[in-house]
Automatic annotation (TrEMBL):
<dbReference type="GO" id="GO:0051603">
    <property type="term" value="P:proteolysis involved in protein catabolic process"/>
</dbReference>
<dbReference type="InterPro" id="IPR001096">
    <property type="entry name" value="Peptidase_C13"/>
</dbReference>
<dbReference type="GO" id="GO:0006624">
    <property type="term" value="P:vacuolar protein processing"/>
</dbReference>
<dbReference type="GO" id="GO:0005773">
    <property type="term" value="C:vacuole"/>
</dbReference>
<protein>
    <recommendedName>
        <fullName>Legumain</fullName>
    </recommendedName>
</protein>
<dbReference type="GO" id="GO:0004197">
    <property type="term" value="F:cysteine-type endopeptidase activity"/>
</dbReference>
<comment type="similarity">
    <text>Belongs to the peptidase C13 family.</text>
</comment>
<dbReference type="Pfam" id="PF01650">
    <property type="entry name" value="Peptidase_C13"/>
</dbReference>
Length: 181
């Protein structure tokens, strides 16, 4: 199982529940499906006896575009990105927004390929989104080590954001799946 394949699995779950592609924005490095060590080239299977979770996943933001600056711009509905034909969050005061992020982390950071997103920067963006009425409710699922540190003592209680994390602020997060065969 790979951190990088979890986004594909999450995408398949969201789509299977009827959320259309125009309401989903996917960031992924896109570096495992055709990797020379992948025994099933072009296919990504992220659990024992699983099916391909890669097929059909959009390439909204891939490779070098997967970075903290772009991520925060997308959440903020950046008009420059939108004018360039890129997907950005286009939500309003009645919308429910779901964010799923899965990668590596450490206290007060989310790791991107070559960069870090700091808790304070994420919180500034989320607070601004709330002030700009870009959601009625927002759910943020964060799967990284020490992921609790991104919200602990930073997330205001009165802005309709529910954050769930894979670990406490000072705890590692370990992924695993039981192979029952």
């Amino acid at each position: 199982m790979s951190l990088r394949s979890d986004v594909y699995h999450a995408y398949q779950i969201v789509r299977s529940h009827g959320i259309p592609d125009d309401q989903i924005i996917v960031f992924h490095f896109n570096d495992i499906a055709d990797h020379k060590l992948n025994p099933t080239l072009g296919v990504v299977i992220n659990r024992p006896n699983g099916t391909d979770v890669y097929h059909g996943v959009p390439k909204d933001y891939v490779g070098a575009d997967v970075n903290p600056k772009t991520f925060l711009k997308v959440l903020s509905g950046d008009q420059e990105l939108a004018n360039a034909g890129r997907k950005v969050l286009k939500s309003g005061p009645d919308d429910h927004v779901f964010i799923f992020f899965d990668d590596h982390g450490a206290p007060d950071i989310i790791a991107f390929q070559d960069n870090y997103l700091y808790g304070e920067d994420l919180m500034d963006t989320l607070i601004t989104m709330h002030a700009n009425k870009t959601f009625a409710k927002l759910v943020f699922y964060l799967e990284t080590c020490e992921s609790g540190s991104m919200f602990d003592k930073l997330l205001p209680k009165d802005i309709n954001i529910y954050a769930t994390t894979a670990s406490l602020p000072t705890e590692n997060s370990y992924q695993w799946d039981l192979d029952s065969t």
